[in-house]
Amino acid sequence: MHFSLDVTPFEIMLNGILQGLSVGIVIVPLTVATFSDLDPKFRPEATGVFHLLRNVASSLFISISVAEVVRSTGVNYARMVEMISDYNKVLTWPDVLGAWDYMTTRGLLRISKEVSRQSAMIAYLNAFGWFTLVAAIAIPFSLLISPARSPGSVTVAPAPPSRQAR
Prior knowledge:
This protein is an all-alpha fold. Helices cover 65% and strands 0% of the residues.
């Protein structure tokens, strides 16, 4: 969530490595907890259904994220270009626009490219924010998982002594 337009390739690579390790750390215990108390004869079908649901949910969330990036990029672009006009007196200050010139076609093209870059960055941060929110909502549900009891740990109370008829 703290990425900026100045992010380095090393930071992106480090983030990818951490995400990959985190997914591996989460998926294995989730799978073990899912199948721990399931009868072994049902595991092949349950594995297929489990991974199907996981893939469908992942695809759905990826689609929602891409839609959010596209939507948010357009919204942010529209909001930012509203400020570039003759009516914005701040743009007449010499240090604000720098080398950009909104009075020429070439200058407008440069400004448009920069606004596109910044609006896409905001959109990606919004998508990562949604991802963080969904992951945070999932944390309390993970606390509901209880450890499975092994078959040997079940205690059976001894039968009461039988009374023999005399």
